[in-house]
TrEMBL record:
Belongs to the LolB family. GO terms for biological process: protein transport. It is found in: Cell outer membrane. The keyword Protein transport applies. InterPro entries: LolA/LolB/LppX, OM_lipoprot_LolB. NCBIfam families: lolB. Pfam families: LolB. This is Outer-membrane lipoprotein LolB. It is a lipid-anchor. One of its GO terms (cellular component) is cell outer membrane. Monomer. Keywords: Cell outer membrane, Chaperone, Lipoprotein, Membrane, Palmitate, Protein transport, Signal, Transport. Its main location: membrane.
Amino acid sequence: MSTGGKRAYNALPVIALSILAGCAIQPAGPPPATQWQTYQERAASLTHWDLSAKVALRWRGGAENASLNWSQANDRSEVDLSGPFGAGAVRITQQGDRLEVERGGDRSAYDSSTPETLAAATGWPIPVSALPFWLRGLPDPDQSIEQLSLQDGRAEEIRQGGWKISYTAYTPAGSGSLPATLRITHAGDNISLRLVNARWALPDQ
């Protein structure tokens, strides 16, 4: 073997050790539990936000497609749905246990403390009080968590009160991310709500 060949051969272990050492000192990312804690804290801190998306609802009583615009300010939710119910637009406003539905110039008020409120008011059998949490990728704090699956430190699936919320995509929002595509289902009642193309507007944007 030539002198040059010997030098190259002798250098191989040094190169290999250098590569291994470089890999060893690479900082590891935070564990999933820590990432999830960070996500929860950030998403829960969002008290003012706007969301626009397309929604499709299927249930035993029928099927509807609509454009959704949701504006949240502390505990006040204002939701505009255009296209459903065979009408032009519906506005749903909730604050505390009071729910108002405005449709075609008519306004009705309901007590939203029961899960059946939204179904009675609009025909959409979805738990209205849980939606501000589920939309942000968070469990509803007023319900026990039956199952929670994480992917990359964010919710992939939440099960509460017989409902399953599946998250298939997230989108950048502010300094982090929020759900872009999700599906809410209740197998016992054959209900499926799919939300796609979610666009978030946050105060810091």
